[in-house]
Amino acid sequence: MTQKAPGAEGNDGLTVDATVRRGSFTLTITFTVPAGQVLGVLGPNGAGKTTLLRALAGLTPVAGGQVRMGGQVVDDAAAGIFVDAAQRPAGYVFQDYRLFPHLTVAENVAFAPRARGLGKAAARQAARGWLDRLGIADLASRKPAELSGGQAQRVALARALAGEPALLLLDEPLAALDARTRLDVQAELRQHLAGFAGPCLLVTHDPLEALVLADRLLVLEDGQVVQDGTPGHVARRPATEYVARLVGLNLYAGHADGPAVTLAGGGAFTVPGHGWDGEVLVAVRPSAITVSTGPPQATSARNIWAAEIAGLTMLADRVRLDLRGQPPALADVTPAAVTELSLTPGSRVWLSVKATDLEVYPRDHGGPR
Amino acid sequence: MPAPLLVPALVAVAFLVLPLAGLIVRAPWGRLGPVLSGSDAVQALVLSLWTATVTTGISLVIGVPLAWVLARTSFPGQRLLRALVTLPLVLPPVVGGVALLLAFGRTGLIGRYLDSWFGLTIPFSPLAVVMAETFVAMPFLIITVEGALRSADQGFEEAAATLGAGRMTVFRRVTVPLIAPSLGAGAVLCWARALGEFGATITFAGSFPGRTETMPIAVYYALENDPDAAIALSLVLLLVSVVVLVSLRDRWLRGAVQ
Predict the structure, then answer these.
(1) ipTM for the complex?
(2) pTM of the model
């Protein structure tokens, strides 16, 4: 059975320039996603991620601006255009899946073909094709209540794809799964997303999931886009404290004047040849910070400062130190170092970091598109 | 179990069960066949069963959409509308009968035109029985279904919409199946209420044997001149109620409670 890649023909991607209001919350957002790209939408709870998906699906009207998908304008507040959810070429995989409890898996997947006017037999055959494609044909006659989390996730994806959408929306597709299943489904999902020809939006608050599944990241905070770039770029040069925490970096805002960077929260770094002037951000990996009990003597590091240990946390194979100083920092050391240097909360230590480990970049940047 | 709760509970049980026991004890078991066949029992029962069933059908056809409108839309005056359509729940049925008479009677508000234009006279006909029963019983279905629609997870309906289903398809293929247990419970309540209707029916439809004399009315008249027949007829109604309760309980009523 040959099936064309869904979302393929005439797809000019997704173009969004819109304002969405939900109660007192306002989401203002502008971005485009070309066909075939998976855009990871990352952000803390309440940032507007789900609101964005709902607006794109036509479940929440936009208050202003325009949305284009699959070659048609589906929202244009000024022109009074609002295409009903049922009429939109968007497939939606809900966080809680929302499989119809009274229908079997096959009937769930056949729902969209049926709603589109296909006869019973034809819709069943289309559903069959999707179940085969996602490797869940053996679940066809089960009811959603009889599925495991991973199985329900696959069925939800099959059901959305069976509508042959031009745009695929996934809201935290793996959030409801246990850690083990998540890894399996994640690898599989990556394959299926690669096979989808249209643009795809994947909402998540798990940075790893975003890094693995997305071609590009859009970071939302408080209804605003704070960063838009490739996963590598976002991981290296986080634009906000939230993103830095997600990807596990120390982030400082400061003012650059030549090699000297004066940090807004106190302290300073010297970073020769970073090439920026004015408002900058400085990112540094916790593992790049060296911790010693006395002032380091023979070191090439030019950035040395004193700090006090506020707390220690055991990570997988290392210990993360929470350090109070100018500036404050998170630093990773080995468990052996903790005993050798007898590091305890309240210990006074010296921190040093090489200039080459300090990533300096201008503050207001959206990153390369 | 604390006595202050147990004792009143036992009194309640006694109060509800003893009269039914009395009915069974006093029944003329030996002459049940002749008594029933000698009365209007069969035709009254047939009339009661079909009018209650037609009433339930009409209530489903027009009451469920009204429940949807009340639960899923909002417009000015909606609260007033809800109060008005559920008023028959608390209105004495006799008052409902009088109101129906004033509206659809031969000289009533609407009845006079039905009479002069179409020669249609509603009161004291089987149609009047159905109308009286619908007036009294449909609100039971409406509030049951409206409550179910309000508490149903609308996420499923949203999912159906994103899959390309229009409003009617969503209603037919998702909303109705999801509230089926409550729909069943509402229909049973409506049917049972219609079966037992007395006040509105006797006021608006009268009591012509074979035409408008339903079981409850037959029982009432039998009690005056043939108490044994009244008891026998009551037994039949009790039996019908028990059969309905038992046969539908597992399928629908329990589901509605969950």
Answers:
(1) 0.81
(2) 0.81
